[in-house]
Design a protein that fits this description.
It is a single chain. This protein is an alpha/beta fold. Helices cover about 40% and strands about 20% of the residues. The protein has eight helices and seven strands; from the N terminus they run H-E-H-E-H-E-H-E-E-H-H-E-H-E-H. It has a seven-stranded parallel sheet, sandwiched between helices. It has one domain (about 1-215): 3-Layer(aba) Sandwich (Rossmann fold). Residues about 1-5 have low confidence and may be disordered. The longest helix has 29 residues, at about 1-30.
């Protein structure tokens, strides 16, 4: 009986998160904000990718903002702020993911009338965030070649639920003895319709292709 109660509680929590995520999505749509949830393991390059993309977009006249999600600290928050973006920092404490309620509160702190593009950087994790949509229009998962060529097939739920997969740090693929073709094939084995973009954020490789897939 205890197990049944746990399952019901979990289902209620996920349903509540989905309802808030839908409200977040409606709010962002009303304000004409294009929103992107960036997921990936620690060290995959989420922060740098967002920084590079934001710089390109702001140079085009688009107004960017970010929500920085981390278990603790404000390192990514300060990095985003240094690019002149409005940023809200979220520390999740013991939680291994952002949820829609946290994002709802973050949006309350932003002037949505002055934002064209919103980046949401999730906590560095490839498991927990899968069941918690935040209300973003597009979910982007980043995998670095430094994580090995089996990362896609080890996380089919998150990968299959993503709108775009980014394989980052491709300049290091040969040194890491990783075949990026395997990563791409594993994505399409899960869902043949998910676009896969090869990038090296530090070298600004593939960013135009990523922006094209993002509709920007």
């Amino acid at each position: 009986m205890h197990k049944v109660c746990d399952v019901e509680l979990g289902a209620d929590m996920l349903a509540a998160n989905r309802r808030i995520a839908e409200d977040n999505a409606a709010l962002l749509e009303r304000h004409g904000i294009r929103s992107f949830d960036f997921l990936g393991a620690i060290g995959s390059g989420k922060t740098l990718l967002i920084e590079k993309l934001a710089d390109i977009l702001m140079n085009k006249g688009l107004r960017c903002a970010a929500i920085a999600g981390d278990v603790a600290g404000d390192d990514d928050y300060r990095r985003f702020r240094s690019h002149g973006m409005p940023v809200v920092n979220i520390n999740t404490g013991k939680e291994c993911h952002l949820d829609a309620h946290m994002v709802d509160h973050a949006l309350e702190k932003m002037d949505l009338e002055k934002i064209d593009v919103l980046f949401i950087e999730n906590v560095g994790n490839l498991v927990c965030p899968a069941d918690f949509p935040l209300g973003s229009k597009t979910r982007i998962t980043i995998v670095s070649v430094t994580e090995g060529d089996d990362m896609i097939r080890k996380h089919p739920v998150l990968m299959g639920g993503s709108d775009i997969i980014v394989v980052n740090k491709i300049g290091m693929a040969q040194a890491m003895e990783v075949d990026v073709k395997i990563l791409k094939a594993d994505v399409h084995a899960i869902n043949p319709h998910i676009p896969v973009v090869m990038t090296d954020a530090r070298q600004c490789i593939g960013l135009d292709n990523l922006l094209k897939e993002m509709g920007l």
